[in-house]
Design brief:
single chain, mainly alpha, two-stranded antiparallel sheet, elongated
């Protein structure tokens, strides 16, 4: 039988007992901890608890979390564009960061759109606001790549307007219902 070698070319076998009482040969202690009966049951209980908690999240919680993510992304983009306008952020960094923010906003929009809700009109308003944010970020990115300062300023204004729309849609979605 050929034994596997670790990174240093050494093999130090350890025996362990599985939850079923079998003796097994392991290369290091981690499998021993995972396979011992008490730890294995604890791992299963933790996994079960995690699954229960994640299944207990409502679509309203998901929409709230995604809306906050969109607001944070918009604020980050706005601050970054302010820094770029002031000469404190390099163009390449700003473009890369805006691309990342654009991907985040696309994911957020998809999550909000796919969430099941009893408030479809308010959900549509949130989705539109996130889409407007995404369009403004894409426009700012294009302005940066073209070195068009006026385009970047216009995109930043659109970003601020879309942020206000998101805040209004969020407030309406989560307003107390009669």
């Amino acid at each position: 039988m050929t034994r596997p070698l670790n990174a240093l070319g050494q093999f130090k076998p350890t025996t362990a007992r599985s939850a079923l009482g079998e003796t097994i040969l392991v290369a290091h202690q981690t499998p021993n901890l995972i396979l011992s009966g008490r730890h294995f049951r604890l791992d299963c209980l933790c996994l079960l608890l995690l699954l229960c908690v994640s299944a207990g999240c409502s679509s309203s919680d998901e929409i709230e979390q995604q809306s906050r993510t969109a607001a944070s992304a918009a604020q980050t983009a706005s601050m970054l564009l302010d820094a770029w306008m002031g000469g404190a952020a390099p163009t390449a960094y700003t473009v890369d960061t805006l691309q990342s923010i654009g991907k985040t906003l696309a994911d957020v929009g998809a999550q909000i759109r796919s969430a099941e809700t009893s408030e479809p009109t308010e959900q549509a308003s949130l989705t539109k606001a996130v889409n407007d944010l995404s369009v403004a970020v894409t426009r700012a990115e294009a302005g940066l790549q073209a070195d068009d300062r006026l385009e970047v300023q216009d995109a930043q204004q659109d970003l601020r307007l879309a942020s206000r729309s998101l805040a209004a849609a969020y407030a309406k979605y989560f307003a107390p219902k009669p």
